[in-house]
Amino acid sequence: MSLLFDFTVDKATKTIHITREFAADLDLVWDAFTKAEILDQWIAPKPYKARTKEMDFREGGRWLYAMVSPVEVKCCSMVEYIKIQPKTSFSTKNTFADENAQPRGNGFSLVKNSFKEGAGITTVYVEKVFNDLATLEMMATNGFKEGTAAGYENLDEYLLTLVTNK
Amino acid sequence: MRRDIFQAIADPTRRAILVLIAVHAMTPNAIAEHFDITRQSISKHLRILSECDLLAQKQEGREIFYELKIEKMEEIDVWLAQFRKITEERFQQLDQVLFILKNKKK
User: Fold this and answer.
1) d(Cα B13, Cα B41) in Å, to the nearest integer?
2) How many Cβ atoms are within 10 Å of A11's Cβ, its own excluded?
3) Which chain B residue is nearest to residue A26, measuring alpha carbons?
4) Residue A25 contacts by C-beta under 8 Å, 6 or more apart in sequence?
5) What residues have CB less than 8 Å from A109, skipping those under 6 apart?
6) Closest-CA residue in chain A for B21?
7) Interface TM-score (ipTM) > 0.90
8) What's the confidence (pLDDT) of residue A143?
């Protein structure tokens, strides 16, 4: 079965739109996005593994997890839950943090995950807005690239339009 | 020394310099006039930008003009491609997890 994967970038609004179908019913896909024990199994890019330190899935709650490889521990990614509509959507603010959940740098992204059930297929739509392009890069490589976790300030709109207009 | 573009844009003064020279080529003195910092630290920022391969130099008479290599900014597209790839792989991992969980239920 071929599952839809659509990924589009709007550089002007620093937003990424992702649509992805999964061959499972809504209940299961919802759990996979909201329960630590399942998230830990898929959220980390290889060879890293995710290890949840804290999970409190409710509005105002947060999920704190580390990325662990055979040789190093990258701490931590923090997901703060802003709004939750069960089995429909949830919005988060994502940042990098230390083990005590103190933010590292000024970068963040705002994410809305929406879920739609079909016949044996659940479609997940992700809208991710970055506060600047440097954050996007940081999130893209999950902070694995040396030095990028240091607090970037807002990348000038001008540089952005340069790239967009090329 | 080779640096990457992230080091260029990690600093607010360097971003401001990039904005200035994106409009037209400028001499180091003309650039320095826009900032309330020493000529020496402007030189340091220019050196870093140059090491990031973002600057082209033009000699006109006794003066050196710096301009932005706009094509280098295309590296941003490379980051985006990286992010797409990581997202794609992550969701493939989720496919496997969902497959296992579904079979456990049965």
Assistant:
1) 10
2) 17
3) B98
4) A117, A120, A122
5) A93, A94, A128, A129, A130, A131, A135, A136, A139
6) A159
7) no
8) 40
Q: Which two tokens stand for residue A160?
A: 């952005």
Residue numbers in A near B79 (CB within 8 A): 133, 136-137, 140-141
DSSP labels, A27-94: HHHHHHHH-HHHHHHHSSPTT-EEEEEEE--STT-EEEEEEE-SS-EEEEEEEEEEEEETTTEEEEEE
Do residues A78 and A62 touch, judged by C-beta distance below 8 A?
A: yes
User: What does pTM read for this prediction?
Assistant: 0.65
Best A11, A33, A115, A137 member to test B by mutation, with max B CBs in 10 Å, is A137
Give the C-alpha distances (Å, rounded to integers) separating A22 from A3, A17, B49.
Answer: 7, 16, 44
Token pair for residue A77?
């990614």
B34: CB partners within 8 A, 6+ apart: B16, B20
The number of residues making up chain A comes to 166
A47–B contact, CB cutoff 8 A: no
pLDDT, one tens digit for every residue, chain A (166 residues)? 578 888 887 766 778 899 999 888 899 999 999 999 999 988 887 667 889 999 999 999 999 999 887 777 777 889 999 999 999 999 999 988 888 888 877 778 899 999 999 988 999 999 988 876 666 655 555 443 332 222 222 223 333 333 344 3
Which chain B residue is nearest to residue A5, measuring alpha carbons?
A: B88
Distance of alpha carbon A93 from its chain centroid, rounded? 9
Check B10 against A23: CB less than 8 A apart.
no
The residue type found at A95 is T
